[in-house]
Amino acid sequence: MALKRIGLCLCLSFFMRAAPAQGVVLGGTNVPKDKIVVYILIGHSNMAGIDLSHSDDVANPMCWNYRVSTKAWVPAKEPKNSKTGGLSGNGAAGPGMPFLKGMSAAYPDYYFGVVTNASLSATCRGENTGNNGSNLDPSDNRYWDSTYLYTQIVGAAKAIQKDVTLGGILCMLGTVEATRTSEAVCRAFSDDITELVKDIRRDLAMPNLPFVMGEYEAGATAEFSPTLLLPGIIQAQTRLIPGKLPFSALVDSKGIAMLDNHHYTGDKGQQEWARRAVAVIQANKFFPGSATGIAIPYGKASAGGMAAHRGPWTLTAAGAEVIGFEDGAYRINGAAKAGAGLASRPLAIKASAR
Question: CATH assignment of 15-283, given 1.10.10.10, 3.40.50.1110, 1.20.120.50, 2.60.120.10?
Answer without folding.
Answer: 3.40.50.1110
